[in-house]
Amino acid sequence: MSSQENSESLPEAQATAHGAVETAGDPFADPGLPAHKPRIQDIDERAAKRSERVVAFLFFLSMVATIGFIASYVIFPVDKIVFIFPFGHVSILNFALGLTLGVALFCIGAGAVHWARTLMSDVEMPAERHEIAAPPEVKAQVLADFRQGAAESGFGRRKLIRNTMFGALAMVPLSGVMLLRDLGTLPEDKLRHTMWSKGKALINMNTNEPLRPEDLLVGSLTFAKPEGLEEDAEDFQTQIAKAALMLVRIKPEDIKDKRELEWSHQGIVAYSKICTHVGCPISLYEQQTHHVLCPCHQSTFDLSDGARVIFGPAGHALPQLRIGVNDEGYLEALGDFEEPVGPAFWERG
Ligand code: FES
After folding, report:
1. 168 alpha carbon – ligand 1 mean position (Å)
2. Which helix (H) or strand (E) holds 96?
3. Which of 137, 198, 286, 323 is most buried, with most CB under 10 Å away?
4. Which of 310, 305, 317, 323 is nearest to 255 (CA)?
5. pTM value?
6. Is residue 88 in a domain?
7. Confidence tier at 18 by pLDDT (50, 70, 90)
8. Nearest ligand 1 atom to alpha carbon 343
């Protein structure tokens, strides 16, 4: 056929092609879509049933994988390492969590794709470009198309697919809920208490020896921890973060705060070392003024006046620990701190 014959016969072909736009005389006209070929599932109900079972199986597999994820989380210890080819040495817990979650999500996706490709309507529908704001009749058409799509997808009719899909989608978020366990247990009243209690000796943090009043000279600054708290203890950091103590000796006549004087021993006062701003350890002491300075944001506390804040962003005085001396002449606590130590805790009630 010559090119001239070709161009003459084109408009007729366009007029008959599926989805063609009428453009008589246009050599670049839309050739339209090829004729629709029905799939095996469209003409054979047994094939459609087979596809339905495959989709349901994939959704069911997703549910099993989600259960596997939860079981892995409970069963496998965090520190167990195994050799798995070709990954090498891996954490069995991470491997199992990744594998099961991956399978759960993959099966939902694969099920949805298989459902769309084999059972939902695959009739191509050309749509012409139009204004962004759809006129009412188009909106009505969209609604009708949506209803038709819902009917053709068999969503209402194929209850097995629908129910297993809902099951798979509902169970996948359980994986995330399980991970919330890693947030740990609730602190309950642990933030309100420290290791200090009546009769606990004050141990020098540098020498690890119990402190006597005569170990502390006027103007000196000493750090202490509670008796029984060893540096190799598993919870050492947790406990010392609350119980770290700062001791200074001030001439009793220089102590202005009445309660501070009562809670001291021969001018030795014990305060929490944890800054009440955002929790830095306080370490700078100015013996002439009895001020201690937090190095982080320069909050300054007056240790001769109840450790009240005289400068900086800290919102509260440092908590004081009431101390005395035991029968053997060592410094000891006479109870726990009366306020929770640390930053901004009191505002939280
Ligand atoms: S933490 Fe001490 S001033 Fe900010």
Report:
1. 50
2. helix 92-118
3. 323
4. 305
5. 0.54
6. yes
7. low
8. 1
